[in-house]
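User: For my dataset I need records formatted as: sequence, then structure tokens, nothing else. Please produce one.
Assistant:
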Amino acid sequence: MTLILNLLWLLCGGFFAGLAWLFGGCVLAVTVVGLPWSFSAWRIASFVFWPFGRQIVDRAAYTGEDNPVAGCLGVILNIIWFLFAGWYIALIHVFSAALEAITIIGIPFAFKDIQLAQLALAPVGKMVVDKP
């Protein structure tokens, strides 16, 4: 079932959304200042391309390791991200979810867009893992 949902997701706009996240990560990587956020953008792109059967988890809680990005540095990076990019990317995903939720077939896609909106608000310190 996840294969069918992922293929439908790709055909109905997920492919272009994933490309947009990849492109955004590349732009961030080119600007040396944006390099810390480029890895988060690429991580989100991997989730956007194939979201069903995967979940977003907090890196520190999942691995149990103490990571500088999970602490104070991660909070600062997420605040900067939110101010310059996160809020409007999240709004785009919420708007997409509202349009998808109009149809019965689009409801699972709307749930994934809401997850992406939450992730777009504060991506640093998160990771994508397969569901057990």
